[in-house]
Amino acid sequence: MKRLQRVLRSLGVIFTVQCCASTGLAQMPDLAPLPGTGSLSRPENPAKFTFVLAGDNRPAHKTCSQPPTPGKIFSAVKEMNPAAAFVLWTGDTISGKQPDKPKRMRKQYEEFLGIAATAGVPVFNAPGNHELDDANNSPSKTMRKLYEKYMSQSYGAFTYGNSRFIAINSEHEPAESKVAPEKGSKQEAPGAITSKTLKLLEEDLDANEDKAHIIIFMHHPVEPYYPKDGLDAKSVKALKKLFKKYSNVSYVVSGHEHMYYNAQGDRKKKVDPPSRTDPSQPPDYLVSGGGGAPLKKNTPGSFFHYLIFNVDGNDISPTLVPVDSKDPCDESST
Fold first, then answer.
1. I want to staple 235 with a disulfide (CB 3.0 to 4.6 A). Which of 13, 50, 193, 263 is the partner?
2. How many C-alpha atoms does 22 have within 13 Å on its Cβ side?
3. Nearest one of 247, 249, 318, 275 to 5, comparing CA atoms
């Protein structure tokens, strides 16, 4: 059965085990593209397509406009040949963190959405702390509602061709995550995955074992460059344990750290993202947060960039693309 599944995946055939189809396994809610970025078109070849991933473009300061980098990335996507099918974004699209200023949040979202629309393909986002937190770095229900009003769901998934793409919300209210800072604290809490999210993720993975590839994208890294920037230890342990059960979880890509990082390589060097072929190994963990926000300093991955993923049956190959850009609002870059 497993061998048959691999053959069918490579041909782009969506193979569903009869028992799973009849039991109606739960899945993540359908993730909608960001407003104004269009809708998914059917792939000419379900087993062969290209998509782009980037993230973390928020302005250097809350009084600044969007930096030039995201516009350059979306412009490059527009000119790609062969064309990209869609773009995945790892969050922090706005400066945010002001639930008491909803009009300002709306204008920030409108500015980003205007830039994202220039890509000419659907853009999907997994929100980060700047979209979902308040000024005290605590997850805010008001900010989440504003995100859902102007952007999309805070988590969800979609299927394209032979693959499944899952966006996870790694920001939660203190009562849910139990890792939020005390009120009034400016110390940023680590990301966290709730038990509800974990259960829904497992059900979605169960329902999509026929897919050639599962790509998971979120804001906080499972394998960060700096430990303080990642998910809390409990969430990391739970996710890694879950991913071991599924051979088709290919990549887990995050942002939050404003840099590029391949967790499978030498952290002292810039290591290109790994390609994957069937049979699958444990997922590869990548950080792609070079979409325009102020870069981390003194790391090999401190440069603006995006990733191009080429899917070809059971094979998938990412390419790292640096972006030459400078933000006039970021004093540290001058």
1. 193
2. 3
3. 247
CA distances from 24 to 155, 200, 248 (A): 20, 13, 20
Residue 177, phi then psi, degrees to nearest 5 = -90, -30
Number of Cβ within 10 Å of residue 214's Cβ equals 24
Q: Which amino acid is at 293?
A: A
Instruction: Provide DSSP, 202-236.
Output: HHHHHHTTTSSEEEEEESS-SS-SSGGGSB-HHHH
Q: The domain 2-325 belongs to what CATH superfamily?
A: Metallo-dependent phosphatases (3.60.21.10)
Residue 308 · residue 290 · CB < 8 Å: no
Query: How do residues 1-22 score in pLDDT, each as one tens digit?
Result: 444 454 455 555 444 333 333 3
Half-sphere exposure of 212 (CA within 13 A, CB side): 26
Instruction: Count other C-beta atoms under 10 Å from residue 272's C-beta.
Output: 11
What does the pLDDT look like over 98-118, one tens digit per residue? 999 999 999 999 999 999 999
**What is the distance between the alpha carbons of residues 177 and 55, in angstroms, rounded to a whole number?**
24
- Per-residue DSSP letters for 84-103? PS-EEE-S--S----TT-HH
Distance (Å, whole) CA 180 – CA 140: 11
**CA angle at residue 132 from 156 to 40, to 5 degrees?**
30
